[in-house]
Every structure is written in C-alpha cells, then in structure tokens.
Amino acid sequence: MHAWTFLSLVAGAAAAATTTLPQSAGSTSVPTAIPVSGSYDGGMKRFERNPSVCQGQSETGEKDAMFILENGATLSNVIIGKSQAEGVHCKGTCTLNNVWWADVCEDAATFKQSSGTSYVNGGGAFKAEDKIFQFNGRGTVRIRDFYAEDYGKVVRSCGNCSGNGGPRNIVIENSIAVDGGVLCGINTNYGDTCRISNTCQDDGKSCDRYIGNSNGKEPSKIGSGPDGQYCTVSGLSENC
C-alpha cells in the first residue's frame, strides 16, 4: 500500500468517529431498565437509573441495565449516564445508532444473540475499567465509526461463560480508541475472529488471543497482535 493511501485511510477513520460526548437534550431517570421492542429514539437525552445500581466491576446482570433490547430492536440517539451498571443488553441481534456511554460502569453493552449480526454505528464510550462490549452469544458484531476513551478492551468474547463456544466474529471499522488496551479479545479455540480496518488505537494494540473455557476459570492468554488467521488488521494507526 502506498504511503498516501494509508494516510488517507487513517484520516478517513479519524473523520468518521466523533471524539467528544454530545451535549444532552435533557435527562430522564427511571427505577428499572427500559425495555425496547422495535425502534427507540432517545432524542439525545441522558438516561440514568435512580437509585443508582452501579457497583463497579461487580457482575450484576440484565436487571441493572439501562435498556433491554428484544431480538431485532434498534436503539438510537441516547446518552447513558453513570448510575446504571450494565448499559444495554441485547437479547438477540440489535442495532445501536449513535449511542453514548458517559461512564461505562461494568459493561456498556452485552450481545446475547444465538446467530446473526448486531451493529454498533457511531457513538462512543468513556471510563470502562474493563471491557466496553461483552460478546456472550454467537454470530457477528460489527462496530464502525465508534470512539473509545479510558477503557480496558473495546470488545471481548466471553472467556469463561457456562456453555461457552463460538465462533464469534468481531469487525471494527473506521473507529478511534485512546488511553486503553486492545480493540479485541478473542478465543481462538472456539474459532473467534477479529477483523480491524482503518482504525486508530494510540498504542497500536489490536488483539489479544485466548483459550476460552466454560468452567469459570480465568482463560489463558496465548498471544497478542495480528496472526493472519484469527486477528487480521489493515490500516491500523497510532496517531489518533
């Protein structure tokens, strides 16, 4: 690839992702998670749980999410505040359009689909001590034009779930990630893949590869970076 082509791809990635939390158009506080069937447009309001259910990295479950999406649902134009714990739970495939997390707490979103493709289009997340997206199901999650800041991993295939398996396919395109770790954590023994293109991570961190299990033990890390099979990268920049 010519140098000018590479630079133009990186510039395109930087232009695609918004890097600041949008100003909210008001706020809403609710005592329980909001269920979504079909489509829900939040009009860029900030959504909070009251009382707060955030317990840091303690696993709390679906009931402490901000939104629970039924199979095929679409959530658009919301800012999720720091008082929730589990962000968005997608019970099947889902689409997240311009969804922002001001403070992730435990996870920003959990994908539980048994097959098919879920989409994260635009948006961003801040202050994720561990992972932003948790991929527990199967199929594919496609993330594009996304911004991540101050995080552990952008997306992780579940490493030790009961009934664990795969494959889980992750695609990250035209996104920006700073002050954090790898873009993907995948389990190669389950055939997981991560494909990264035209994206910036300020330390050049792409993938961590693991041996997943279903017994709850900490999975073994077997390598980092692209390997040409499970983790493939094109147009990855460190100049975000």
Automatic annotation (TrEMBL):
Signal peptide residues on this chain, from the entry's feature table: 1-16
Entry annotated with the keyword Cytoplasm: no
Location of this chain's protein in the cell: Secreted
Catalytic reaction equation(s): Eliminative cleavage of (1->4)-alpha-D-galacturonan to give oligosaccharides with 4-deoxy-alpha-D-galact-4-enuronosyl groups at their non-reducing ends
Keywords tagged on the record: Calcium, Lyase, Secreted, Signal
GO molecular function, one term: pectate lyase activity
An individual GO BP term: pectin catabolic process
Cofactor: Ca(2+)
EC number(s) reported in the record: 4.2.2.2
GO CC terms of this entry: extracellular region
Matches recorded under Gene3D superfamilies: Single-stranded right-handed beta-helix, Pectin lyase-like
Broad EC category: lyase
Matching InterPro entries: Pectate_lyase_PlyH/PlyE-like, Pectin_lyas_fold, Pectin_lyase_fold/virulence
Family, per entry: Belongs to the polysaccharide lyase 3 family.
Protein's job: Pectinolytic enzyme consist of four classes of enzymes: pectin lyase, polygalacturonase, pectin methylesterase and rhamnogalacturonase. Among pectinolytic enzymes, pectin lyase is the most important in depolymerization of pectin, since it cleaves internal glycosidic bonds of highly methylated pectins. Favors pectate, the anion, over pectin, the methyl ester.
Listed PANTHER family: PECTATE LYASE F-RELATED
Name of protein: Pectate lyase
Native source organism of the sequence: Hapsidospora chrysogenum (strain ATCC 11550 / CBS 779.69 / DSM 880 / IAM 14645 / JCM 23072 / IMI 49137)
Lineage of source species: Eukaryota, Fungi, Dikarya, Ascomycota, Pezizomycotina
